[in-house]
Amino acid sequence: MRYRDLATRYGPPSGGLDRVRWFFLCFTVFFCVTAPLQVPFTSPVPPAFRLAGLPAIGYLLWRRLREYRNGELQPPVWDALEFVALVAALVVIGPLSGGLGILYSGTFFRLVFGSTSRTIIGCCGGVLALWVSCWWVNELSATPDGSWQQQFFPHILGIGVPTVLMRLMLTTMLAHQNALATERQLLTAVLDNVDSAVIAAHPDGMPILRNRAALDVYRELGLAESLGRWHESVTLYRGDVLTPFRAEDLPMVQVLRGERVRDAEVTMGLPDGTYRSYLFNGQPLTGSTADRTGAVLTITDVTARKEAERRLSHLALHDPLTGLSNRTLLLDRLQHALQRRSAPEKRVHLLFVDLDGFKTVNDSLGHHVGDEVLVVVANRIRATVRAQDTVARLGGDEFAILIEDEPEHTAIATADRILTSLRDPVVVRERALVVTASIGIASGEDAGEADELVRNADLAMYAAKERRDRVERFTAEMHHSAVQRLVLHADLRAALERQELFLLYQPVFSLATGRMTGVEALLRWRHPRLGLIPPLEFIGTAETSGLIVPIGAWVLDEACRQLSRWRHDHPAVADNLTMAVNVAVPQLETPSLVGTVESALANAGLTPADLLLEITESAMSEHVQVLPILRELRRIGVTLALDDFGTGYSSLSRLRLFPVQKVKIDRSFVEEIDRSVDTAVLVTSTLALAHGLGLEAIAEGVETPAQLGFLRKHGCGEVQGYLLSRPLDPAGVASILGAEITSDNQLHKPAHV
Fold first, then answer.
1. How far apart are CA 723 and CA 545, in angstroms?
2. Which single residue of 321, 425, 430, 440 could bond 461 by disulfide (Cβ 3.0 to 4.6 Å)?
3. Domains in the chain, ordered, with CATH?
4. Which residues pair with residue 283 across a beta bridge?
5. What is the maximum alpha-carbon separation in the chain?
6. pLDDT tens-digit map of 112-169
7. Helix ranges restricted to H, 13-95
8. How far apart are CA 32 and CA 48, in angstroms?
9. Is this prediction's pTM over 0.85?
């Protein structure tokens, strides 16, 4: 067996009781080796008795080895045998008994008191007591011939006292060791139930103690035993997973150097290409003399937490449905792009994309289908742009694309490619859906801040949305118009209270009888500062702001009251008149519209048949919401007309679903029928279609006798326009009540006017 193995097996252990046993073992070996050398010179025992000491010496050696190896005290009977053996041995080696007693006593006092000075005092006291005891025993046992029996009792006392002391010492230390073992078991159980790895190491980095989690870390990562050599097993990075650690900067090396480490993050690059993140905490261990005796290190696996943080960070900056950047990330990149603009010809461009009529997809097929469409659209946009361009979803059906360091024509070409890619049908759940988009473009030269550029692109997008499926570039006029709309919005909100809104009425005539059959109420706004504002300049603002709902309710109420007044003042000619009122899509989407209509009719004393509500073709694209309300209006007896027929996005299938009784041919067709053959054909076809569906036709914008004659010839039911009458105030309408259209297409006023 090699010396190293012997040292490992029989070397001095760390426990207090083990150290005592090791000491006694060494002393017994020394005693057994030196005893034969001292026997001839020290022992007065006859030679025949000297051989009795050899078995005692052998027993002592065997007893110490057994006790040291078993780690426990033997029964008391063995102590008696040991006492006899020690007496026999000391009789043979006489003078060593005092030295043995001093050595036993000193060891006991050192272990009990834990102080060198107290040990010296205890040893001196033990020696003095031993000498006094020996003198007293010698006096009592003295014999005239001074034989060896005179020394027998001092030897017994010399070994008896140390043996008792040794027994007390071993018993005390065994109890102490058992308590330490219990505490160690408790500590081990606690550490093994800690999720973090706990490692206690020597100053050279070799582990002294490791809990179960630490063993798992060693096994899973294949780490070197020494803490200071971990960098040889795996690549260690800082928290950014980009910067490798230098060996001297590693947290475990810092702890071994005597430095404290708090929350040091280390990412380990494993051979399979994955990464594990750990949090290191540690502090050095020092002895009573302030010398470093080792270090304690705790290692917490934070890989799952870091991954959760990464996912949360991704969700905070990306759209969860499409995976695109969100508004926050877009604004951040946009601001940085504006700050690092390079050459003048290399600009920053922002594209705003809004899907046309996407609300219909959600309302008719469900939001789950709409979400699938948005994912397809996002993938098409991403496939169209460059890899370095930022594509973001701003919410709903709005997207944005940030293009950096490119001339303007590149941004326009990108927008055109996006429109082209989106025109291809989107197949979702065996349905082919046609999706178009409106795109607004704004460049960095038009704005200094990110928010300003976003605003400009949004304005350009809304300008494109007026005609749909097109691209518009931002101009300063768009911003001016937006500011004007903002001012109008603020003024329009107070216009009702200040009674700045009023109605004009344009007469409607029957071509079959030539008589006036009704009037159309037209809203006007007399602004105190800007004067008379055309409807086209404020109706859109009223619709987008939601003000059209209270304004529309006022129009309904005022128009019905005016018809009631005409009937009261001119019963003979006004009893058969109907009142036509335009209703915007936001009004149709309001569940209270039916109640508002019934209330206006009741307040004016009219019947539902006296009211004609005109809805635009754009309402047909929102048919899911408005169709139930239109059916309810038709149920109570209100007449419905489809306004501006042919100018919107209506389809014959939807026209068949709508409960309308009349269609109004838009003025843009009427004004061209005497100048364009194609337009004349379209109007003729529209009239034939209306007759075929059992609908009455009304033509608006009639301004020439030729137009009136064409409409009369092809069976148009009713007409209105400047040829017959401009919009009039209530008194003006009263003045032409009972008027008729003559054979030469002129308006003949009644004689009583």
1. 35
2. 440
3. 3-178 (no CATH), 197-308 (3.30.450.20), 318-474 (3.30.70.270), 494-669+696-748 (3.20.20.450)
4. 296
5. 181
6. 445 556 556 655 655 555 555 555 545 555 545 544 444 445 555 445 555 555 555 5
7. 16-42, 47-50, 53-70, 76-92
8. 19
9. no
